[in-house]
Amino acid sequence: xxxxxxxxxxxxxxxxxxTGFVAIIANLIWRMYMGTGDINSIPAACAGCCGCxxxxxxxxxxxxxxNKHVDIEVAGKKVSANLGSxx
Length: 87
Hints:
With 87 residues, the chain is α+β, with helices and mostly antiparallel strands. Helices cover 51% and strands 14% of the residues. The chain contains three helices and two strands; from the N terminus they run H-H-H-E-E. The chain has helices spanning 15-34, 42-48, 50-66; strands spanning 69-74, 77-82. It has a two-stranded antiparallel sheet with strand order 1-2. A hairpin with a 2-residue loop joins strand 1 (69-74) and strand 2. The two termini are 28 Å apart.
């Protein structure tokens, strides 16, 4: 199925994934419509991209919620992190 990546490990629609995807797409469409000429400072950039920022944070939250144990290899060293209690 095409939208399988919007579902969680239980094959149910994930609120964080769907809302984050909609927020990013809506913000990108709005930015294309309004243009980027009014963004001339960091606070204006944050306000103009708040939908993308919100969507990214929702995706990060979803990754943290689904993956309680993360292994990352950095410069040849394996780093592990337990992000919470597993159910």
